[in-house]
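May I ask for a single protein's sequence together with how it folds?
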Amino acid sequence: MDRDRVWEGPIHGSLGVLADDGQLAQCHICGAYFGNLGGHVSQVHGIAPADYKAFFELNATTGLLGPALKEIRQQQADARKSSPAYARFMAAGARARAAVPEEQRSTRGRRLRLQQRLDPKVQAARRASLERANEVLRERKAAGLHTPAGWGTRDPREVSARGHQRLAELRRDPEWRAGFSRKVSEARGGRLKVTCVVCGTSFTEPQSHKGRKSCSPECFRQLRRGLIEARRDAAAPNRAERQHQGVELGLRRRQIGLSIEQVARAAGLSAAHVSRIERGLNVPSGEALEKIAAAIVGPPAGATTVAPSLVGGQGVT
């Protein structure tokens, strides 16, 4: 059962307490009394006895029985204690407990159920444990061995300086640096195994570099050249056409008698860029062709394309 689950319905009686009337035990769910409460909750309410105990904060070892039936069962158990079967049963239980690891047997850090916390014996043991801890603390203080938590009476600036000094010493230790880097990498998800898209070499990278696709500067340069060539190939179908249209616009400008500076100013481009387009050295975009054509003759009223005669017989949208 999930220990975070809680009973959301009404509760009869008190949590952590198995109430009875002297003969029968009360059900926390319906409030009725039964001799065999465990059988009732499993058959009527559909809840396993272990889950019932967890829901209502009862100890796992608490028997869901009324006092009368519990006494009968105890007499039956006492009668079996002298039998060989009981001895085998106890021996098997001891072996099972011995097989459990020490960290699982320890109750340190575990949450006690309410019935156990309300037990007078448990409360007395806790008070005794706290008193022993306080006694040890008093002895350490008397012997001058106790250091209060925090800075105490020390100057915060002195404490900070000592901390920075210690951190600088640790940073000079290669083993400490390697361990610190490993912890940071694990906290961020560990290192990634990546395959170079150029040479196929496998290498590891931290999560912060998970977008990296090449294993070395040489492979990175080769990958970049490939991407540039791919973009050029994608633009190749109309590349020569746009270059020819730029040359024709230069011829048209000279026929009209406009200077490059005038066209560049009207188109919002640099004079050097317009000059290189007219000489066929730069491949202009469609937008640049449209601006240059509009600067030379001006766009016709209501037109959204450049005149076909200005750009090789085809309009530029």
Observations:
- The first helix runs from residue 37 to 43.
- Residues 300-317 have pLDDT under 50 and may be disordered.
- Residues 1-82+111-138 form one domain.
